[in-house]
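cron nightly-structures :: item 1 of 1
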Amino acid sequence: MNVEKNKVVAVSYELEVEGKIADKAKAESPLEYIHGTGTLLPRFESELEGKQPGDNFEFTLSPDEGYGEYDEAYKVDVPKNAFEVDGKLREDLLVPGYTIPMFNSEGQVVQGMIVEVKPESVSMDFNHPMAGKSLHFTGKVESVRDATDKELLEGLHGEYLPKEGCHCGGGCCGSEGEGCCGEGGGHCNHEGEGHCHHDGEGHCHHEGEGRCGHDGKGHCRHEAKES
């Protein structure tokens, strides 16, 4: 059976970035996804199109084919009171290096990494962790099968269904780790951070203004304007 639209594909792989292994999935715990649904980076899926179980693959994605170039405009200062819950500042979230799922003004989930905590604001970087980097993938197609009607409707793990208490499409990033921007939910998170997922509109185009509100469910809702 060939890799094509609406097939459930399982792959083992290694992702090398700047000479180091940034992410990998072993054969016994492969990455599974429904092909042709925009779950993974478009070039990643196109490289697997037509392959069969047992086929190997190797390719390199440019920054434009991956997560785009690094853009200083995606760094923004967020008012510190945006991280208050019931009037109390969530200082446990305000740790440089932590990544927090946020919403932009269009209601899209964006991952923001805390860079610096200032007296009145928090500097956040909304660039994807792999922005500006070439991604070298090697791996093997482990299996291919038809997706069930239920999987096409709900996703492999229910990630297409609305989630209560989670606004990241079913794959919320914790306070630690980089977190990948999956489209429709579900991080790879095998041994690395899962940087093969497509982030869709995952970048935040800020003007450095606007307000943040907390949704009361453990995540911050950023409502800054888009440029």
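cron nightly-structures :: done
Residues 165-193, 199-227 have pLDDT under 50 and may be disordered.
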